[in-house]
Design brief:
Belongs to the DEAD box helicase family. This protein has helices spanning 18-26, 34-44, 59-70, 87-101, 117-125, 135-143, 160-165, 169-178, 194-203, 234-245, 257-271, 285-296, 330-337, 360-370, 388-403, and strands at residues 49-52, 80-83, 108-111, 130-133, 154-157, 184-189, 208-211, 222-228, 250-253, 276-279, 302-305, 320-323, 349-355. By secondary structure, the chain is α/β, with parallel strands linked by helices. The strands form 2 sheets. It has a 7-stranded parallel β-sheet, sandwiched between helices. The longest helix has 16 residues, at 388-403. The chain is globular.
Length: 404
């Protein structure tokens, strides 16, 4: 299990039932993670709770274990709704939740776009007690009269900061207003920007806060670097870094879908390998599913992606992250880089962020966010700039920007 706690707390000290404890032992959940230790006892009381912790710390089990304890399996109505920002994360939560339910006679429904709505409607009509999905599809099913929330008593907002980042706030508010006022609300988020706090203040009742975020928001098992480079020298730099690092699995992040497609076209023409793939929000859901499945199975060595996989997707084999385009938001940097550093304890993940000379200020903002000054990635003999005389002049300015 992710991020096992090193303290002496065990699951049987958190107030979970005997059947749940037997299931956890059977599926190999030996020790609770810090967010599970902190959140589960509060959630079991029915109180609203805000949990702040980085991705990959066991947040799904933290909110789902106490939730499953409270669901009435004999009532075939929607009792729990979990909202997540992306289809991939929703599916991951869905699969993990079904695993945690074990042999409980519960029905689940996955409500996400890019999949046939008919199957989702059938699951709801079949008496789903737990619905997991993205705000857009959930609201669509509500408008069509297939998803009713009158009997709901637990609402979970997973990766709340990301849902607000990508514009889901109106959908989330409409959904929460349709829920009973006396429900329990659990909000999970890696960061707590003002928009998330406003949402909590408006739709939660005297929530208890659990802050497991660390002063160093990027874990120590990740070696991080920056590399200054001209825009048209990024591809040669990427090829050199890949040849030098020889990653077991690497995700290369771009800012745009078009940029991801262009980069994938270059690699697929050069290498003609089935171990290279691309993923972004415009791809059919079936193809996105195949890519994530291949990544988890270790069948892919190189994945070119937008921030659609920047958060929440738990893949343990990623050894390297390359930010081909510096992320637009500092928190996106944290989540992108968090995709690595999950190998065995003696293997550090590595992350390199490409920065053009005009982006010194953006790099500085990232360094402030993670409270760390990144070292420069050194590649002997590589010319990162078009003209040496310009390099000398501009690098001086780049350094001054970062000093400021």
């Amino acid at each position: 299990m992710d991020d096992s706690s090193e303290n002496t707390v065990t699951f049987d000290q958190l107030g979970l039932s005997a059947p749940t404890l037997r299931l956890l032992a059977k599926i190999g959940y030996d020790h609770p993670s810090p967010i599970q230790v902190a959140l589960i006892p509060i959630a079991l009381t029915g109180r609203d709770c805000i949990g702040q912790a980085r991705t990959g710390t066991g947040k799904t089990a933290a909110f789902m274990l106490p939730t499953l304890e409270q669901v009435d399996s004999e009532r075939g109505v929607v009792q729990v709704l979990v909202l997540a920002p992306t289809r991939e994360l929703s599916e991951q939560v869905y699969l993990e939740s079904r695993k945690l339910a074990g042999n409980m006679p519960l029905n689940f429904a996955l409500a996400v776009g890019g999949r046939p709505m008919g199957r989702q409607i059938d699951d709801l009509r079949g008496g789903a007690q737990i619905v997991i999905g993205t705000p857009g599809r959930v609201q669509d099913l509500m408008k069509r009269g297939h998803l009713r929330l009158e009997e709901l008593f637990i609402a979970v907002l997973d990766e709340a900061d990301r849902m607000l980042d990508i514009g889901f706030r109106p959908d989330i508010e409409r959904i929460l207003r349709a829920c009973p006022k006396d429900r329990q609300t659990l909000l999970l988020s890696a960061t707590m920007p003002p928009d998330v706090m406003k949402l909590a203040q408006r739709y939660m009742v005297d929530p208890e806060s659990v802050d497991l975020s660390e002063d160093r928001v990027v874990v120590d098992t990740i070696e991080q670097f920056y590399a200054t480079v001209d825009e048209d020298r990024k591809l040669p730099l990427l090829l050199r870094i890949l040849a030098h690092e020889k990653p077991s699995q690497v995700i290369v992040f771009t800012r745009t879908k078009r940029g991801a497609d262009k980069l994938y076209d270059v690699f697929s023409r050069r290498l003609k390998s089935s171990r290279i793939a691309c993923i972004h929000g415009d791809m059919p859901q079936s193809k996105r599913d195949r890519v994530i499945k291949a990544l988890r199975a270790g069948e892919l060595r190189l994945l070119i992606a937008t921030d659609v996989v920047g958060r929440g997707i738990d893949v343990s084999g990623i050894s390297h992250i390359i930010n081909y385009d510096i992320p637009e938001y500092c928190d996106d940097y944290v989540h992108r880089v968090g995709r690595t550093g999950r190998l065995s304890s003696d293997q550090n993940g590595r992350a390199v962020t490409f920065v053009t000379l005009a982006q010194g200020g953006e790099l500085t903002n990232i360094e402030k966010r993670i409270n760390t000054v990144l070292p420069e990635y050194e590649l002997e003999g590589f010319e990162a700039f078009r003209r040496r005389e310009r390099r000398s002049r501009e690098v001086k300015r780049f350094g001054a920007d970062r000093d400021e």
